[in-house]
Design brief:
75 residues, membrane, F1FO ATP Synthase, 2 helices, transmembrane, proton-transporting ATP synthase activity, rotational mechanism, rod-shaped, single chain, mainly alpha
């Protein structure tokens, strides 16, 4: 395998993380809604954790996208 093919294969594998981040964000919101429906009085106190989980999942997705772009255009 030549270097160009390996670079593009690595970028494609890194881009999978962006799709998995969407699953992670959906999971975060689904679990929050599940917990809020079970105990509505505690939903307000858990909203901060919801946004932290959302930000963490999006950060990992953006990081995998940046790595894919770096592999394609810089390496």
């Amino acid at each position: 395998m030549d270097a160009e093919a390996a670079k593009l294969l690595g970028a494609g594998l890194a881009a999978i993380g962006a799709g998995l981040a969407a699953l992670g964000v959906g999971n975060v919101f689904a679990k929050f809604l599940e917990g809020a429906l079970r105990n509505p009085s505690a939903a307000d106190s858990q909203q901060g954790r919801l946004f932290i989980g959302f930000a963490a999942a999006e950060l990992l997705g953006l990081l995998s996208f940046v790595i894919a772009v770096l592999l394609i255009f810089v390496a």
